[in-house]
## 1
Amino acid sequence: MRILIAAVGRLRDAPEAALTVDYIQRAAASGRQIGFKAVELVEVESKPPSDMRTEGASLFRATPDDSRKILLDERGAEWTSRQLAEKLARWRDDGQACTTFWIGGADGTSQSIKDNADEKLAFGRQTWPHKLVRVMLAEQVYRALTILCGTPYHRD
C-alpha cells in the first residue's frame, strides 16, 4: 500500500519542510520492510485569494482513484498512535492500494472534500498551523510504521 500526504500550499524553505521530509523518508524506509510501497508528500498550489473549491479540486486531482481518503479536521476522531498503526495495517492487509491524508488550506476545506472523505482525523480540538500539521502527520505515520515493525521508537 502507498501512503500519500496531500497538502494545500508549498512550504518551500520553511524549517517545517525539512522536518516533514525527514519523517517521510524515515517512514518510507520503515514501511518498505512491511509491505508499504511508498510514503510521499504532494503539495498542491494555493494561490491568493484562497478558494476552498479550487484547493479541493487540486486535492482530488492529487488523490489516486483507488485511495482511501482521510481528512485532517479538528472535528474528526482522535486516534492513538497504535490505532493509526492498526488502521494502516488493516487497510494494507485488505488490499487497499493507497491511503491519502488530506490537509486543507488556511481557510479549511470545501464541503466536497468533507463529503468525500472516508474518515476524519483530528490532532485534538485545537486549531494547528498547517505547516505543523504536516510535520505532526508525517511523524505519526512514521511512528505507526515503527509500531508495526516492532522497533522501540514508540513507547507506551
## 2
Amino acid sequence: MTTYFDIPANMLISALADKLSDSKDIVAPDWSEYVKTGVDRERPPTQENWWTIRAASLLRKVAKQGPIGVTTLAQTYGTVMNNGAGPNTPGVASRHIIRTALQQLEVAGLVEMVATREVDTEDGKQQLYSGRRLTSAGQKLLDEVAHSCRDAANEMYPGLAKY
C-alpha cells in the first residue's frame, strides 16, 4: 500500500488541497484575502486556493512530525528576514493562520490535540497539550490521496517504482 512517505511533497500537497477543497469544514475565513502569511512578507498570497494548500501542507507536516505545536510550525513556515545592513534573522510565519487552519482540520476530524498533563491553577485544574497529531481519519485520507498519486509519481520520477 502506498503511503504519504512514498509520494513527493509537491504532488501530494496539490492533490490533498484538491481533496480538502471539497470539505465543508476547510474554508478560507473572510480576512484571508487581506492577510500576509508572515512578518517577512510584503504582500498577501496571490493564489486563489492558498488556504487549502496551506491546510494540506499543515496536515502533511503534522503527520510526519506530530505531535507538533503552532510555534514550531510557525518557525518551519517562516523565512529569513532582511534587516538591511544588519545580520539576517529568522522570520516566523503567521501563527493565527496556522492555528485557524489546524482548528479547521480538528473540526474535520483529521487532527487531534495531544494532552500531556493537568496542572493546578488558582481557577482549578488546567490541561496542558504537547501539540497536535494525526487521527486515523487523517491517516486514511493521506494514504488515499497518496495512492491516487502513485501512477503520476512513477511517471515523473521513474526511480520511485522500486519502492
